[in-house]
Write a structure and sequence with these properties.
Length: about 190
């Protein structure tokens, strides 16, 4: 069993994020999914992103760090889009991480110290025509991370949807989400 700390995206802790956590739990993993938005869930992505900007991206990242404080060090850090901020920060800076799964986003390594820990495996998942992932620099950051890290994989899925793994959103892509989930479960089985 892997112990997972899963962070939601800019819509908040949606039923789709909860369902993803449930799928990991059904496979035998222990999942913590803190609410970084203090109970708020936004139907519209722009509204959720506006809330995150207003709260401050540093605040969102710090809420993620605070959620990890009372948990053991040997976690797999998972982030959906905005949730990649705290997931990647913890994987890069908190000793003892077992791995990281960066879904729909990747931040340049320089954001959290400039280097990825060589003993922390990582997977990055995104769609090859997702304007947020491709045009906002996440794909470039993902490729740089993979090039600099021995145990790093980048998976690109055909399509242009951003949050394709959240079953509660219109952007959900069942086929791509199933493959992502299969790869995530394989990763968790390997690093536990």
């Amino acid at each position: 069993m892997a112990e997972v700390l899963l962070f939601h995206h800019a819509h908040g802790l949606t039923s789709g994020v909860r369902a993803f956590a449930g799928a990991l739990e059904a496979a035998g993993h222990l999942v913590h999914a803190p609410d970084l938005y203090e109970g708020r869930v936004f139907e519209d992505l722009q509204d959720g992103a506006a809330y995150a900007r207003e709260a401050g991206f540093d605040t969102i990242t710090e809420r993620g760090r605070a959620a990890a404080e009372n948990l053991p060090a040997g976690l797999v850090h998972v982030g959906f889009s905005l949730g990649v901020l705290p997931a990647q920060a913890l994987a890069q800076t908190r000793a003892g991480a077992k791995g990281a799964l960066l879904l729909h986003s990747c931040v340049p390594l320089s954001e959290f110290g400039g280097a990825w820990p060589q003993d922390v495996p990582v997977q990055i998942h995104g769609m090859d025509a997702d304007e947020f992932f491709v045009e906002d620099g996440d794909l470039d950051a993902a490729r740089a991370l993979v090039a600099s890290t021995p145990d790093a994989e980048l998976f690109l899925y055909p399509g242009d949807q951003h949050l394709f793994a959240d079953s509660s959103l219109p952007s959900y892509d069942e086929k791509a989400a199933a493959l992502l989930t299969e790869r995530v479960l394989g990763f968790l089985d390997r690093v536990r």
